[in-house]
Amino acid sequence: MNCRGLFDRRSWVVVVSLVASHAAFSGDDQRGAGVALLPKYKQECAACHVAFAPGMLPAESWRRLLGNLPQHYGTDASLDAASVNELATWLSANAGTYKRVREAPPEDRITRSAWFIRKHDEVPAAAWQRPAVKSAANCAACHTKADQGDFNERTVRIPR
Amino acid sequence: MTHSNLIRHVGTALIAGAIPIGAHAATPQDLQAGYSALAGTSAAPDRGQQLFTTRHGRDWSCSSCHGAVPTQPGKHTSTGKPIAALAPAFNPERFADAAKTEKWFRRNCNDVMGRECTPAEKADVVAWLRTLK
Fold first, then answer.
1. Distance CA B94, CA B78 (A)
2. Of A28 and A157, which is predicted with more confidence?
3. A151 shares its domain with A124
């Protein structure tokens, strides 16, 4: 039996999409996938910015951020103690633990992590300054499915 | 009942939760009335507009993120995230929850003015936003 006989056209589609989804959910892209967001996290944190995946920072960074919400990167993001506790429990359970995220980035900024800088080294400096982008924290400016936790390169559209 | 007793009475009612400040479901009208009662003055929409659209010695005004006339979506001035319309006639979720309203006044007045807003200022802003139809 030749290869064509073993895998008809439809089977190939299944195989290829399985491989593709495995690639999307493994290795570096794991940061953006797999964890259902706590409703409280979405409600409180995604009011001002994209709901960054918890695995993008180590527990140590999340702990510091939650301990300093009244001075959160230049804005007051203060929250009641019960909400802070709920977020702390969930973030520490879902924080990044694999090797590239284990170390806290400077200022606990995702955008200063070594993996982030390397992943974005092809983006021209001028692109970050465009009015539609403004900030490296504005993931959704280019990652069109960032709000769904999908950072796959195929969904990237850099605005002009 | 003297005037100051009346204010004290209303204030006590507010703190005790008879008027839902810090509680759950509310209307923009309730919230404005609650703030006015705490302030002991009536609200002035034009003062609210002034507060909202001008800077107060810092980088941002309320309008920096919400727009000068917040009947349409705004955009967070540092992260670029869209912010739904603030005027309650254009977004029924606004000023519908006292705790949420207090949380955002606390944060945003701190960012814009470097202090919390007074009840009178909050009443003025809500009154102005209610005039936008």
1. 22
2. A157
3. yes
Q: Is B125 exposed, middle or buried (0-12, 13-18, 19+ CB in 10 A)?
A: buried
| Residue B54, token pair as written in the block | 């001008």
Per-residue DSSP letter, A48:
T
Cross-chain Cβ contact B81/A138 below 8 Å: yes
HSE-up of A134 (CA within 13 Å, CB side)? 15
Is the whole-model pTM more than 0.90?
Answer: no
Domain span at residue B61 reads 3-131
In a domain, A61, yes or no: yes
Note the pLDDT tens digit of each residue in A86-137.
999 999 999 999 888 888 999 999 999 999 999 999 999 999 989 888 888 8
* Of A160, A107, A155, A111, nearest in space to A135 by CA: A111
Q: Are residues A44 and A94 in the same domain?
A: yes
Same domain, A52 and A84: yes
Q: Please list every residue in chain B whose beta carbon sits closer than 8 Å to the beta carbon of residue A73.
A: 78
Q: What is the pLDDT of residues B33-76, one digit of tens each?
A: 999 999 999 999 999 999 999 999 999 999 999 999 999 999 99
The C-alpha atoms of residue B18 and residue A76 are separated, in whole angstroms, by: 29
Contact list in A for residue B111 (CB cut-off 8 A) is: 75-76
Chain A and chain B share a number of CB contacts under 8 A equal to 42
Would you say the ipTM is above 0.90? no
Q: Token pair of A150, please?
A: 């999908």
Closest-CA distance of chain A to residue B4, Å: 32
Nearest alpha carbon to residue A88 among A50, A34, A44:
A44
Q: How many whole angstroms separate alpha carbon B59 and alpha carbon B30?
A: 31
A47 and A90 assigned to the same domain? yes
Q: How many Cα atoms within 13 Å fall on the side-chain side of residue A53?
A: 23
User: For residue A76, what are the domain limits?
Assistant: 35-103
